[in-house]
C-alpha cells in the first residue's frame, strides 16, 4: 500500500472514530453524502445517462430505503456509493471524505474498512463454511488482527444472527434465509460505517425476509451504522426512517408526501 492510500484510509478511520464518539444525529454530519451525482455510460453505440443530479445524505444509525421501477438506476447508485463504480460527475463523500478521486488501491482499502454490502443472491463463497465466510471479510479488513480473535468475532457475529449451530455449514447446506443471515454477519462483522443492501429480501419468503430485516435494523442501530437499502417490498420500505424513490435516474423523497 502506498503512502497516499494509507493516508486516505487513515483519514477514513479517523472519520469512523469521530462518528463513533458522537451521538447519532448530533453534528457529526452524514455518513454518506452524494452531491450532484451524474452517471453515464456508452452501450451499443448509445450514450446512456443513468443517474441525473442525484443528491442524498444518510446519517449514522439512519435507515433509508430506495424504491423505484426496474432499470431506474437504483443499483447503479449503490455501486457508486460503494466505490465499485465511478460517477461521471458530482461527489461521493463518506464520513466527510471524498471518494470520487481515490485510486483503485485507496478505493479497495476504503471499501474493506468502511462499507458492508448485502446482496440479493447472498454472494457467499461456496467452498467456505459460514464461519470462514464471515472470518474472511474481517481478515481482509483487519489484516493485523490475530486469527483466533478473528474467528471469535466471526462466531459472535453468527451467533448474533441466530446461527450459532451453523458455524461449520457450507452455504449449500443452508436455507436462503440462513445464507442471508451469514451475508448479514459478514457485512456487519467489520462494524462498517455504511451498510448498502441491494434487495436483501428479494429471494426470501415474507417471514424469513422480515426476520433478516429485523436483524439488520437492530445491528445497524446497535453499531450506529448508516443503512441504505434498495427494495421492491413496500412493507420493508415503510419501516425505514426515510423512503426515497428513483425514477429515470432521479431521486425524490417520498416520506414528506405521506
Ligand atoms: N454496464 C451497463 N451497460 C449497459 N447498461 C447498463 C449498465 N449498467 C446499468 N445499465 C442500465 O442502466 C439502467 C439502470 O440500471 P440499474 O441496474 O441501476 O437499475 P435498477 O433500478 O437497479 O433496476 P432493477 O430494479 O431491475 O435492479 C438500466 O437501464 C440498465 O440497463
TrEMBL record:
Pfam families: ABC_tran (PF00005). One of its GO terms (molecular function) is ATP binding. One of its GO terms (cellular component) is membrane protein complex. Keywords: ATP-binding, Cell inner membrane, Cell membrane, Membrane, Nucleotide-binding, Translocase, Transport. Residues 7-24 have a biased composition (Basic and acidic residues). Residues 32-258 form the ABC transporter domain. It comes from the Bacteria. Residues 1-28 are annotated as: Disordered. InterPro entries: AAA+_ATPase (IPR003593), ABC_transporter-like_ATP-bd (IPR003439), ABC_transporter-like_CS (IPR017871), MacB-like_ATP-bd (IPR017911), P-loop_NTPase (IPR027417). Belongs to the ABC transporter superfamily. Macrolide exporter (TC 3.A.1.122) family. PANTHER family: ABC TRANSPORTER ATP-BINDING PROTEIN MG467-RELATED (PTHR42798:SF2), LIPOPROTEIN-RELEASING SYSTEM ATP-BINDING PROTEIN LOLD (PTHR42798). This is ABC transporter ATP-binding protein.
Amino acid at each position: 500500500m502506498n503512502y497516499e492510500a494509507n493516508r486516505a484510509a487513515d483519514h477514513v478511520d479517523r472519520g469512523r472514530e469521530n462518528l463513533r464518539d458522537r451521538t447519532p444525529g448530533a453534528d457529526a454530519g452524514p455518513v454518506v453524502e452524494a452531491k450532484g451525482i451524474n452517471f453515464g455510460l456508452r452501450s451499443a453505440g448509445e450514450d446512456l445517462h443513468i443517474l441525473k443530479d442525484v443528491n442524498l445524505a444518510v446519517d449514522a444509525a439512519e435507515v433509508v430505503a430506495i424504491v423505484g421501477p426496474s432499470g431506474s438506476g437504483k443499483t447503479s447508485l449503490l455501486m457508486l456509493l460503494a466505490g465499485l463504480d465511478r460517477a461521471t460527475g458530482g461527489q461521493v463523500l463518506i464520513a466527510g471524505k471524498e471518494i470520487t478521486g481515490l485510486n483503485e488501491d485507496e478505493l479497495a482499502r476504503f471499501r474493506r474498512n468502511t462499507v458492508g454490502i448485502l446482496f440479493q443472491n447472498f454472494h457467499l463463497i461456496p467452498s467456505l463454511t459460514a464461519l470462514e465466510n464471515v472470518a474472511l471479510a474481517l481478515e481482509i479488513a483487519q489484516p493485523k488482527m490475530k486469527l483466533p480473535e478473528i474467528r471469535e468475532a466471526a462466531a459472535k457475529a453468527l451467533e448474533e444472527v441466530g446461527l450459532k449451530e451453523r458455524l461449520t455449514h457450507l452455504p449449500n447446506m443452508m436455507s436462503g434465509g440462513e445464507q442471508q443471515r451469514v451475508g448479514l454477519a459478514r457485512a456487519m462483522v467489520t462494524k462498517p460505517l455504511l451498510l448498502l443492501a441491494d434487495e436483501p429480501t428479494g429471494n426470501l419468503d415474507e417471514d424469513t425476509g422480515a426476520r433478516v430485516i429485523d436483524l439488520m435494523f437492530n445491528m445497524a442501530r446497535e453499531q450506529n451504522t448508516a443503512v441504505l437499502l434498495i427494495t421492491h417490498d413496500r412493507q420493508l420500505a415503510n419501516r425505514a426512517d426515510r423512503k426515497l424513490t428513483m425514477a429515470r435516474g432521479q431521486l425524490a423523497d417520498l416520506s414528506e408526501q405521506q
